[in-house]
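Researcher: Sequence of LLM class F420-dependent oxidoreductase follows. Predict its structure.
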Amino acid sequence: MQLAIHFSNFTLPGGTPSLASALSESAVAADEGGCSQFTLMDHWFQMESLATSFDPMLEGYTSLGFLAGRTERITLGLLVTGVTYRYPGLLAKTVTTLDVLSGGRALLGIGAAWYEREHLGLGVPFPPTAERFERLEETLQICNQMWSDDDGPYEGAHYRLAETICSPRPISAPKPRIMIGGSGEKKTLRFVAKYADACNLFAPDQETVAHKVGVLKGHCEAESRDPSEIENTIIIGYDPLDDVDKFLTDMEGYAKIGIDTVCVGPAGGDPARWVTEVTEKTVGRLADVG
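Model: Prediction complete. Tokens:
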């Protein structure tokens, strides 16, 4: 099993002037510590479940570009891009740029978006849920087309592109990996089976996750897709350093039901130090899990 770091808290000692160094040092610690991925949120306002909407939140792709120049091996992405935040062609171009400048380390994490307050606050349209999922599927189709040899038009219900030119091409071969976030059984997991290389599931307990993995396998069968081609990832809501042995025991259970990667988030006011400690105590032992 692999460890991924998800950096979501920008309310740190030292305030705004400290954010660049805190973010950079945390990503470098994850890179040097053997983590597989370093992800940020894609929000304009901080989530109210973590702090308040007035707490600091950096724009995601600008931040990943900054980190591309400070890391060497780790995959960089957003967990996850909201489909409503950017036009699909621009999104594909943005991820391609990140991929080129990072030497082939970009991940497109994407989902149907949900945070209505930030849309209304900054004047961005927030369609109903059904339409957002329609836009998500079209966006997946557009990104895959732009990263293919087909630079012709795309005609969808919501997006129409006269040309899908993407130059330079991504360094990742054959294209940047796509991760879809969410656990919806009818649409989200079907989209994973049809279009994506990875999924990210919330992990309230192993029984729930096992059920979701089973649903995904069913969609893979319907799409004639080998489920082993898809990386199953989870994000957990507790600090592994509170009880490392318990964390590792939990991960053994998740590995048995098909989870490949666990995403954890720094706790406390010194995220780089936290990342260093969690990698030292877990990365080597996680590698033996599963």
